[in-house]
């Protein structure tokens, strides 16, 4: 069942990333609404399956504290996986260098905190749906 949830989180992450980058494309005036992602992202988003125990421990926390915990968890994963890929391949699939002053080593963007907060809270609902309602 963990493998099924890993795959679903990977697919959901890909979909959300394509939607997010496509919306950014629209904002920049690109009528093609081009959305992009990387093959690397599927297993990275799939790693959310290992955050499920954290969700179970945080359930009693107020939503804003849980949200902040998700931001920190996501930044940790984003930094670690981006750094590992950069080490192994010589380049990270994403590089925020020069895109904003709110980036750290080109691997995370501090100004993305609100997006990751909402994403983490969305993950909680998906986790509950997969486990409690679908039995996965």
Q: How would you characterize the largest beta sheet? A: 2 strands, antiparallel
Mean pLDDT: 96
Helical content band: 55-70%
Distance between the termini: 5 Å
Number of distinct beta strands: 2
Report strand order across the widest sheet.
1-2
Summing up helix and strand content along with how strands pair, one would put the structural category as: mainly alpha
Tell me the overall shape.
Answer: globular
H/E order of the elements? HHHHEEH
Question: What portion of the residues fall into strands of 2 or more residues?
Answer: under 5%
**Cα-atom radius of gyration:** 15 Å
Number of helices: 5
Task: Describe what this molecule looks like in 3D.
The protein has 136 residues and is mostly helical. It has one domain (2-133). It has five helices and two strands. It starts with a helix and ends with a helix.
Search tags:
mainly alpha, 136 residues, single chain, 64% helix, 5 helices
What's the short story on this structure?
The protein is mainly alpha-helical and 136 residues long. Helices cover 64% and strands 3% of the residues.
Write the layout of secondary structure elements.
Blueprint: H1 2-27, H2 41-46, H3 52-58, H4 63-89, E1 103-104, E2 108-109, H5 113-133
Antiparallel strand pairs: 1-2
Helix pairs in contact: 4-5
């Amino acid at each position: 069942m963990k493998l099924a949830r890993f795959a679903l989180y990977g697919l959901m992450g890909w979909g959300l990333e394509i939607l997010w980058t496509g919306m950014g494309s629209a904002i920049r005036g690109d009528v093609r609404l081009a959305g992009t992602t990387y093959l690397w992202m599927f297993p990275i988003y799939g790693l959310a399956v290992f955050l499920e125990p954290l969700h179970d421990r945080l359930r009693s926390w107020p939503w804003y504290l849980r949200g902040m915990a998700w931001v920190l968890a996501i930044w940790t994963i984003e930094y670690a996986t981006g750094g590992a890929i950069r080490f192994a391949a010589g380049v990270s699939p994403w590089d925020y260098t020069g895109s904003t002053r709110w980036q750290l080593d080109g691997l995370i963007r501090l100004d993305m905190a609100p997006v990751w907060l909402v994403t983490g809270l969305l993950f909680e609902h998906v986790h509950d749906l997969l486990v409690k309602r679908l039995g996965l």
